Amino acid sequence: MRLGLISLGCDKNTVDSERMLAELVGHGAERTPVADAEVILVNTCGFIDAAKEESIETIIEAGRMKRDGACRSVVAVGCMVERYRDELTDSLPEVDLMLGLRDLDRLVPELQARGLLTGPAPAGGVHPGERIPLEARHVRYLKVSEGCDHGCAFCAIPLWRGKHRSFELERIVAEAQRLEAQGAVEVNLVAQDLAHWARERRDGTDIATLLEALLRDTSIPWFRLLYIYSAGLRQPLVELMAAEPRLLSYIDMPIQHASDTVLHRMRRPERSATLRTKVAWLRDAIPDLTLRTTVLVGFPGETDEEFRELVDFLDEVPFDRLGAFAFSPQDGTRAAGMEDSFVPAAVAQDRLEEVMEVQRAVSGERLAAEIGRERVAVVDAPAGAEDPVLGLLYDEPPGAAQLGRIESQADDVDGATVLFGAEGLAPGSLVRVEIERAADFDLAGSVREVVRPASALAATMSPAATPGRGLPVLGLDSAWGR
Length: 482
What we know:
Layout: E1 2-7, H1 11-26, E2 30-31, E3 39-44, H2 49-68, E4 73-78, H3 79-91, E5 97-99, H4 107-113, E6 139-143, E7 145-146, H5 157-161, E8 165-166, H6 169-181, E9 186-190, H7 207-217, E10 222-225, H8 235-243, E11 247-252, H9 260-266, H10 272-285, E12 290-297, H11 304-316, E13 321-326, H12 345-368, E14 374-382, H13 388-393, E15 401-406, E16 417-420, E17 430-438, E18 443-452, H14 456-460
């Protein structure tokens, strides 16, 4: 079976997609470009309206390829299917198989029953944690739990993924070791809230315990924490981050708003005074800390005064990185029932643009302060001559360059660093770079030394080079949140 896989949405979805790919390849599938695929598998996202639209458009395009090309079957799985299966079944007849998050253990049997997946069972049995990278091998994501216990009024994720449940420490460490063996240099820990890992066990273990095990049992040079509520940032974790250089001084801490009345309506646990105190403590405790956050504008009932409270907070307590989005009602959430107080879409969009302009100024000022400093960066990929990042930094680039990221730039969301003098270095190499130029969200500089060359695996295997039959395979079972 020639398989084309399209993964949409967040990096937690990426982890799910890599597990599905490993299982299907282990049962005889061959990964190919989508245009050449017999089966197109779309892992959908339903987080906000724009994500749903992208998922539906992708499925429709896959259906066109089934009608006009080599594709024999379209399979849709994941979050959007979990939530809207009945409606999608009626409106997307081009889809041959739909599986929600709780049904992914049926993926292989269903494809086998349809005569699409005909390879032998994998040798060696089931190996939990086996994944095949979708793209770069040197930067990977490690999901440590599934589901969410927070009751945020705007969020439907608990409706799709269920209540929070932590994965076992030993299984997470084993998966990290597999990622390292595949060439991982940077591993980003993800969950709906990292601080909730092991909370339900009530045995004294917490996210700091897990990080200590990962540091002890792997040699991965960069670990990054994404998605951790401020309420869960405790002394043991902060002290570990301050002391351990392999834990990047980077925290992604979504606040969503800074008006106490809006936070109350959102059913968020923090308030503005607590957030101010927490940010000050973190910056004092962790040297050179990079703080990223996410905010939501246009929540039902948000007044001009409440929005100004958010803007004033972002001026007073600036974050190094910020993502923002406008409210869109999600079926089944409390906020979806607040129709009488919905903020007009045009007003919400204006507020979104204002927040991003505020952040543009903050980011530009903070990145300008990097000029003249030396930072460690990871090499990601060669920079094309027409790459827009080059145009933001140079009228005429001085020569061939690589794109990379310094420690304070997370993959895909925080901009890039243009690296001159890194020609010939494989993705995954760590270099020391002197920063010479800065734009609003990007940097450029010259490499002074190679800190760590890429592993042989990362240097020689392309993302499309996938193992063949007999690959140890992950069983998509309840232990991983199915």
